[in-house]
Amino acid sequence: MQRLAVIDDDLAVRQALLWLLESPSLGVSGYDSAEAFLADTAAANFNCLIVDLRMGGMSGIMLLEKLAGWAYCPPVLMLTAHGDVPHAVAAFKLGVVDFLEKPFDDQHLLTLVEECLRRDTEARDRFQRRRQVADALQTLTEREREVMQHILAGLLNKQIAEVLSISMKTVEVHRARVFDKMGVKSAVELAGVISVLEDKGGKS
What we know:
This protein is α/β, with parallel strands linked by helices. It is about 55% helix and about 15% strand. Keywords: DNA-binding, Phosphoprotein, Transcription, Transcription regulation.
């Protein structure tokens, strides 16, 4: 089940959103402040956040700035009772998916939540793949990394041996170890795996 957090210090709005959004496939939790949300040990497990702009204590923008430091931040929708262009610009720069004025259209909000959940699924998949590749890279020795870089540059074993002043047999051994640790069978596959690290997919 996917999970969504509503962070709003207005009890009536918070309860209305909980009622509107909760379903058999979506668990919804409410928080009366950004501080309360951040204090929850399960905060990082949500798939979408709906955040009020103006709250007592930490504002919605301040919360977004905190979330920007997370290894992974789920998609965020921001709510406000007042049209505020400067804050909207700041929110979008921090990666918010959309900025909605209260009172909002229920169906429009539901559509945006569905889009956020879809984005979260794709973004978490990319995040997981990048972490797996990064972990695999950490297992390579310094020499294996050197050989890998030359493989990615398109050099043949003979050329790599000449550049590194080592035997072709040694290159072959390192090449085999690189392929094994990175879980690939060819230089093309290796290039594809490494490209995952560049696939940020935009800010979620």
